[in-house]
Fold this sequence. Notes:
The chain is α+β, with helices and mostly antiparallel strands and 282 residues long. Helices cover 30% and strands 29% of the residues. It binds 6-O-phosphono-alpha-D-fructofuranose. Residues 87-88, 163-164, 191-193, 220 line the site of 6-O-phosphono-alpha-D-fructofuranose.
Amino acid sequence: MKDIFLEPIQRIAKRIKDAIDTKNMGYSTQENSSGDTQLQLDIKCDLIVEEELSLIPSVHTIASEEKEHEMLINKDGKYFVAYDPLDGSSLIDVNLSVGSIFGIYEEKWGARNMIAACYVVYGPRVEIVFSQTKTKLYLLQDNEFEFIREIRMDLKGNLNAPGGTQMNWPPFHKEMVDSFFKEGYRLRYSGGMVPDLHQILIKGGGLFSYPNTEDRPEGKLRKLFEVYPFAFIYRVSGGDADDGIHDDMMTLDHDHIHGTSQCFFGSKHEIAVVREVYRKNR
Ligand code: P6P
């Protein structure tokens, strides 16, 4: 199954990298379903992904952060692909890393139907991380992606990536985040989900958190094309993920293609701490 998607995603990564490197196109007059004003680059990257995925016969339906509705590709296909074509695109203005995220589901949407996940990080280098039964790292060199190594996380890390507006965090969440800093964890947060989670994954571990907050009572990050893909990747890599609400978020059925959720991704130790704190404060 990886062989069906890896090559198209490598083509997507090269085309989006080229799009990022071309002349700055500024903002469009449109908004996406999350209410973000779309960069013309967002729209261009969305079309790149749509074009490449549409060439795969086994793709049934696609759903994009940049599209209000899902899009039928081939009624005889069996894979449902959700994607965020250029996550964190507002960071391009300040020359920080951004990414593309893909969640691959079988027969229908929903965490329980996820069978693979992948992201591309566009930084000083372009890298792809693809998870199915193992998590594999690929690096773009001389315009070709080369397999580098399998990624495995340590049981405990020392990086702490606390998302969301701190003044809107629940007090028990702030106490938990501060407890990691008191243990010596180091703050690593750029505001880009892909590079922030890539750093924790590659450096062996830690915690990324984005809680429900007063201003975002259902969290901010989108389930189908952000939360579930990274939860899948972290678990396959020997880490863990949780939503602080359900016994196992990856058994949940589908609700809405733009549904959001609070989310925690990290090494097993840090996620166990999250589970204990959130169960106590339900
Ligand atoms: P905050 C980018 O807009 C994004 O969707 C993710 O890439 C990132 O993790 C998050 O929002 C950052 O949100 O509220 O911490 O700035």
